[in-house]
Amino acid sequence: MPFAFTLPTTSNISYSAFASSTSHPSLPLTATTHRGVLRNVLKKHKHLSPQSKAPNLSTVFAALDDYVPYLLALDFALSGTPVNEEEIDLVLLREIEVEWRCTLTNTIPGRDPRCKGKGLDYEISYVLHTLACAHTLQARARLLALYATITPTSDQRTAIITTATKHLLDANTIHEYLASRSTETDGTRQVVETLWQTQGGLAALALAEATLLAVLKDDPYPAVVAQDRNKNDKDWMIKPPEIPKVRAHLFARLCLAAAEHAAKAEAMLSAPGRIDDTLLKYLDDFKRVSRAKACRFFGIDADLGGETGQGIAWLVGGKRQLGFGRTDSEGSKMKGLARFKKDWTERREDKKIEKGGEWGSDAGRLEEMRIMEMLEQKWNKMNDTINTQLIPPSDPLVANMPSGRDIHSTKPFASPTLDKDTLERMRALPEKPNLEGMVDDDSSDSDEGDKMKNELPGAFPGLSATTSDNSYY
């Protein structure tokens, strides 16, 4: 269900060329080494298949966890802030320049532009943005286990959703920190990923996804639908799936809170006008799904109270929120085409889940539609045979839905710092680094590889294989 972000890649830089330290001479070089490792990890991650990216996220986290403390130590040193009660004397020789790929900018698919920025704030914004996106991707990887060939038990399902929620709340914390940090700087306003509106919108999106996961943890219906569509599941031959009573009204309020956070994220991300259309479409689908879930829980609450007719009306309103609403002016041919398109889309989404690739791009829209169809069929059968009740119009019910209710409280970002032993080692003079294997010949990030390829072996420096015939030699 969480959005499938693309982790950015970056160019190669050396901090020793931009800053020097008299108190901790090894700090710039060590930071450069860890950044080189992160750069290679991100580039390798980019070229992996969708099925291999999820297991590789642990390597990305390890590289980020090693690099971020050194990066923030450089920032604290430049601002005069002690690191672990220790002063670091750092002199900036010239302004830092670095390039990162813009993965949220609306461009041609597969051609993310390179965005050059100046200053250490630009580097910090992109590195922490990458860390937050990695947390969201890790939450996606955990939630994919809910749709495995072996249906997870109730305890396993709760553990999966709890872990995914923790990752989303960590992403929210980082995005909130970057949003507050971006309002204090003016040098990075031209890049979409570093704008405070973008980071604030991503923070609201992560909070909305975490809020909806709080409902999913105790919502039995998605598990019933997933079990019904699982071809390898045989539990239905032993006993039917249990559907316990839920706190329907509370869950409806939580879903409305998720819809409000998604609407806030959509407004903030639409402000720059350059955000990728895929993300904006996902936000619109997420907002629709959240409101539809609220309609479903209000319908369940009405059915538990003996008002089955009103419950069916809530389901009709929820289907219209999803965009599958049926109007009286539709012809039978159009209904058949819509049904065929819906079935084809469902089969395609099931294939994506089986392959573990780019699944969930509709924010769970089709899954929620399946649940509503199951409940509508059950309640219509009961209403037609046992207690016949009139079905009221759904529009007045949807228009009078209450406001949302939050369940999660955000925490401030805790900056990772270097320990005293590491700081003591940074006081030693730097050794000659072994950069073998840390710089590759990827032409997308550097032109040095092309220059080396054009030089003739054994010739004078400056001569290349493209030397014209009318040259002096």
In short:
With 473 residues, this protein is mainly alpha-helical.
Describe the structure in your own words.
The protein is mostly helical. Helices cover 55% and strands 3% of the residues. The chain contains 14 helices and four strands. The protein has helices at residues 27-46, 50-79, 120-143, 154-182, 196-216, 221-229, 248-270, 277-304, 308-322, 332-355, 365-385, 395-399, 420-425, 448-454, and strands spanning 19-21, 90-92, 97-101, 114-118. α2 (50-79) packs antiparallel against α3 (120-143) and α6 (221-229) crosses α11. The longest helix has 30 residues, at 50-79. It is elongated and about 85 Å long. 40% of the residues are buried.
Mean pLDDT across all residues, rounded? 81
How helix-rich are the residues, as a percent range?
55-70%
Shape from CA axes?
elongated
Q: What is the β-strand count?
A: 4
Structural class: mainly alpha
Number of helices: 14
Query: Strand count, sense and closure of the main sheet?
Result: 2 strands, antiparallel
> What string, H for helix and E for strand, traces the elements in order?
EHHEEEHHHHHHHHHHHH
- Identify the strand order in the major beta sheet: 1-2
Radius of gyration: 27 Å
Calculate the terminal CA-CA distance, rounded to whole Å: 64 Å
Strand content: under 5%
Low-confidence stretches: 236-240, 327-334, 435-453, 465-473
